[in-house]
Automatic annotation (TrEMBL):
UniProt entry tagged with the keyword Membrane: yes
Protein name from the UniProt record: Polysaccharide deacetylase family protein
Phylogenetic placement of the source organism: Bacteria, Bacillati, Bacillota, Negativicutes, Selenomonadales
A Pfam family: Polysacc_deac_1
Bilayer-spanning residue ranges: 5-24
Keyword rRNA processing tagged: no
Residue ranges of domain NodB homology in the record: 77-290, 652-859
Keyword field: Hydrolase, Membrane, Metal-binding, Transmembrane, Transmembrane helix
Amino acid sequence: MKNKIIVSSLVLFIGACLIGIFFFKDFFIAPTGGDYCNITDIESSYNAEAEIAQALAKMKSSQDKATVIMRSNSGQRRIAITFDGLTDGTSMQQILDLLKKHNVKATFFVDGMQTAEDPQTVVNIKKAGHKIENYSLLGISKMETLPVERVVKDFSRAQKIIKVITDQEPNLLKCNDTNYTDQLLQAAKACGFNSVVKSDVFLNVKQMNSLLAADTFVGKLKPGSILSVKLKPNTEKIVNESGKTDLRPAIDKQPGLKELPQEANLGEKETIAAVERLLIAISKANYTTAYVEDFAADSSMQNPVKTTFFQNSINNVKESIHYSFFIKIASFLQEEFTSLFIGRTAYAAESVNSEVQEIKVISTTEPALSYTFGGLANETVVNDVLTRLHRLGIKATFFVAEVEMKKYPETLRRIIENGHEIGIAIRPKDGETADETRSTILRDSKKLQEQFGVATNLVKQPWGAVSDTTKEVIFSLGYKLIGQSVNVVQNKHKDYTSANQVMAEIFGKSMLSLARGQIVHFRMDYYANDRLVGDLAEIIKQRKVDNIAYATFYDNPANNLSNDSQYTIKPVGEILNNTRFIYRYPVDLTTVSAHLKNDGSEQMIDTHNFLAEASKRYIGNRDVNDNNNMLGFSKMDTRRLDKSGLIHTKDNVIFITFDDWGTDASVNKILYVLRKHNVPATFFILTHNVVNNPNLLRTIAMQGHNIGDHSDKHKPMVVRDPKTGKQVNTQDKEEYIQELATSYQKLLTITGDVNVNGKPMLTKFFRPPTLAISKMGIEVLFETGYEFIVSGSCNTNDYRAKNVPQLEKIIEDGVYTENGEVRKGAILVLHMLDSAAYTAIALDILLTANEAKADSDPSKFKVGRLSDYLIDGYSQISRKSLK
Ligand SMILES: [Zn+2]
């Protein structure tokens, strides 16, 4: 509503301004109307009235349609990349630089309005040798729903603007998320486009978060694909034009201990990084790139969808020619502004809806994951699967399509009788409208309820990219769109006969286990071998789920009921409804305590008190001393820094810490042992990969353990140069600040709101990679708000242990003195890596033996939580006086 008021008042104002021009020439000089007075320039140089009239006349006289360029079938190993819409000039330049670097040709579909706003950028794209094509006036979506006259005006105006600026007329047109109906294709043809373009793949910037992800994405591309990157327009512009209130959403202060040097838009950066990864993966995969127009010859013609509405628009043409100048301008502007608002709102809606994503991994800390199944056509397979699931005690989710409910009602009943969950499978036809999708879902839902007695709110589209329309429909109905993180049955495996063959290709060597919240999907109607799906369901459980449990010869979930370390496989809906474990990711930063969001400014550590503070807040290690790994400190300085690695305390207390990062298979075993003995620990996280498994990190915090930082990429502060033998910093100050901010931000967005017994589990403790320190590194840590640097008294090197007894011995030496007394304040440095295979067992043995001791036994220790000891006012210096 607000927008409408703004638009109307603008139009009125402009109207008044123009009347002023005609009747009171002095009005024009008045400063009030100044900004809008070059409207006449827009009107003249970008005036497309003649083109519009011509196009509308053409539509009347000819039924010719533009062809649709789609994925090329030529079989050549090439793809066409398109960029849809424009983003800010700086980001565009970075994209152009990347294309140049990777020697890639691209097609830029630019929208008329942004081209008018930023002509230089468009000229630069052209100069760089790429093709410029038309993305309509504003890149608005669902253009098939607009009256045809409006569409013709839109196309023609965009075309005129691009022509004026680039001195060239685009041949191709692309509309954003639009069904190319007959009518649209006629309109396009009438406006001078031979073809419209339909992409078959869109780059998902969020998913393209690593080179590996890019490789996987490119690996799945089909040769001949038209791959599109949607660039977001600058949504802030309109706010400035309204000149009233700032409608931008409040931007959270950049989370992290230290604010990152914040550039205008993180989204843009993310897009650019994603594009770079994409280009690297493309060249690695030996694809060549082509312009979309090169695909025109070998693209298959699409059969356009029939439409019923043909607007009365043509009648309006004559009238519009007789419009007075004033009315023409006013209507031009009104339309321009209205559509501008519609356009922006559409984008805004799109970004809101980006949260309406397919659930591929459920954000949960429950030790559970899901199997989903689809495809009822082969009864033998379905029966085999049901038998196996029954034997394994697994309840799963089966997605059924409408046609399957009709054709195989008995099979469906059997699935339901077996206690499995049912969801709806949909396969929207190309160009299906929102209404059609909506009624399919509602019809299926009704049928399930009435004929089979089950209610569901789960929907899955078993193959093909889910369109925004489908997502919106599912969301608006209150249903959940379920995807998968592991797709067991892949096209290339159709004729595979053994589960081992398939396993090797799905999981590779590096995927040791599945994870909490994952969804594993199986298609039952695909393999030539009828037993293969059943085999895989069993083997995946055995090798990738059961291996997560802590199962030693003396403590195994199979015969110890209190061993709760086994993950369960349950229906998707059950995991989603278990709100005790479900969480919001990323964390809502407004709920995070101020202390965790603050930067280091209140610490007031400067050159005067730096050394005094460092000696209070650094808990060292005996191998880190004046000749080794202490770059930048003088000999005098190093004497003031701790080398004991023991926490300053009179209690018989030790501390257990784990470094780096692992998988559910390694971390879950550790968590179970800690839970079994009811002891807290601190996990110093190497954050590089945590975003791939936030559920696991969140679980650690939820179980009452401290989370500390161990850097993002494990670069030590200092290394020894092998040539000179001298110690050198590995990063400069700015790089180090950046690294720490990145790392902390990841921890914050996954665990920032986790409190146990009223205390946050995230800490501002840092463990230096390799334990090496430098003066500069410690300065940066203080500057960025870290409070304690915690190395430790016992390097166990557990990942190198050859067997349990060997590790046991090392740990015991770390915990007890030669006299068998507890080393008060000892910190064990252990690892959560998969390679640290004996760590959980060795700890279990240590803690079991300790529990068996009498309380009066001086060798009995308790396990402390670092955040209870490293509090305000703690000082590591005074430990000498303690003795
Ligand atoms: Zn480490």
